[in-house]
Amino acid sequence: MIPGINPKQMQAMMKKMGIAQTSIHATKVIFKTTDGDLVINNPDVLKVMMQGQETYQVSGHAEYENSNEEEIEEEIEKYTEDDIKMVISQTQKDKETVIEALEETNGDIAEAIIKLKE
After folding, report:
1. CB-based contacts of 87, cutoff 8 Å, min separation 6
2. DSSP character at residue 28
3. Which of 4, 14, 54, 56 could form a disulfide with 19 if both were Cys (CB 3.0 to 4.6 A apart)?
4. Cα 98 to chain centroid, rounded
């Protein structure tokens, strides 16, 4: 805000100019880029409507994350830990390989084991 101006006066001036601001309570903002995901945890997000145009202002500390790790975590949630452990114990393969096999076999544990033993 501008120093020396009452916040209520500032809001009234913005309203006259057709500018409306709304705070959005977000826990995480993710920008998908070719270099990975740019993640802002606990951001301050402000939605601004001006002349019919909707824009968002995001501020906070941003960090790049490896999107591949997040995708693997999402895949793990599709299958129970017991299913994954069973396939690992039968095939001696690593977790990522097992999850890929389960994905390829639509979650069919027996088929995943046979596929990984080939």
Report:
1. 93, 98, 101, 102, 109, 112, 113, 116
2. E
3. 14
4. 24
Contact partners, residue 38, CB within 8 Å, separation at least 6: 30, 31, 62, 63, 64
DSSP 106: T
Per-block mean pLDDT, blocks of 10 residues, the chain (118 long): 78 86 92 84 92 92 72 67 89 89 89 90
- pTM across the whole model: 0.47
Q: Which two tokens stand for residue 43?
A: 């951001």
pLDDT (0 to 100) of residue 45: 94
Q: Are 69 and 38 within 8 A, CB to CB?
A: no
Class of domain 7-65 (CATH, top level): mainly beta
User: Residue 113 belongs to what H/E stretch?
Assistant: helix 109-117
Which amino acid type is present at position 22?
T
